[in-house]
Amino acid sequence: MSELAVEVNGLGKCYSIEKAGIKGGKWRRLAHKLRFGEDESSKFWALQDVNFSVEPGQRVGVIGKNGAGKSTLLKIMSRVSYPTAGEVRIRGSLASLLEVGTGFNDNLTGHENIYLNASLYGMSRSLIAQRFDQIVAFSEIGRFIDTPIKHYSSGMRMRLAFSVAAHLEPDILLLDEVLAVGDMSFQQKCLERVDELTSAGKTLFFVSHSMDSVIRYCTRCLWIDGGKLRMDGDTREVTEAYVEEVLKVRSERTVVSIGAIDGPSTADSQHEVKAESTGSPVARETIENRDGAELVSARIINAAGNKATLVSVAEQVGVELVYDVKGPGFYAPAIHVYCPSGTLAFAATHPSTNIADFEKGQPTRVKAVVWMPAHLFNIGTYSVSLVVFSPKEAPFKRYFSEERYLSFHVVESAIGEKSARGLMPRQFPGPVRPLLDWSVNDVER
User: Fold this and answer.
1) What is the per-residue DSSP string for 72-90?
2) What architecture does CATH give domain 252-411?
């Protein structure tokens, strides 16, 4: 087994919250502490008892809500801040890119700042000169390299900062929300550079609020919650758990009948709906005393038929609903899909025009699955309403209609994968993103 690149043992970082009545400098605060003792309510633990280890070559994402302690962790690892408890062991050289413009002088040109920034990381002037052209070419700001960076956009500054850090070839690279800059081609270059570094045994730590960026760049993920390590594991598993809790995405629900389990249902039977992701009861308006059909369970599924909370733009996504038919009649399933903004994106029902396809002659249990194609949705959280109705009657009779009953979160497709976004920047407009067939040819004038 190779030597660990990073070891974090019992790590804690505590800040003192100064109260309004104890102002006046450190000596007055010390006198107050000696007289009245330590006030535990004045302590804030940004990190508490954090433990993990990382082997060389791993790509580790760090996620969590604002104030969870993610940036504090990276600052301690980069020696910008020091722990109150525990220790961090770093083996090898380390470069960190925690904020836009860190280590840059606004009044200097991009050319001069490359030398300044690289020298702060300990790179010799001769080595900087040797790699200068590579850094400039990677950053794609060659036209402006002799312009003071105070005239640069935040994206240009971040490109330059990442280019310098990535060409230092450190053993450990710490990045805080910096890989989301630029268009797809630049992000592809970033990913390729990260691949080169990690393939050579270098280690990456990447803090981000963008789940699709974490999924694309990282193979392992740490979830920091309230200063504590909530979860550590496979990136997909950790990000799905995070999305389920933080974004309140419910991709699976089961209806539980209370009081009717051991006997026939009655008009007074009570029902609850349990969201499998949270386990909490969810109120429903239309659940009582169904006369024709009753929902049993529903979930969002992937192509393998497994429950899916996160899906890629390039993946098909299915809705599976199971319902009980209580007697003879005609029963057709339908869904309504809502955009992240809350507006209706589209509605769909079974395409058959043969009324006999929906006829049931006796009580039975039905499972209906509808597939939505890949490259239909843009990134964001979508919700789904479930309906079973009778196509025999006009207007249609609804047996049940569960509004925004399920939800799923769509993340960006893999870098380099064919997509309707092409080379457009990250903020692609609209709720849908169909991959269309294009033909572009030169014609005679």
Assistant:
1) HHHHHHTTSS--SEEEEEE
2) Distorted Sandwich (2.70)
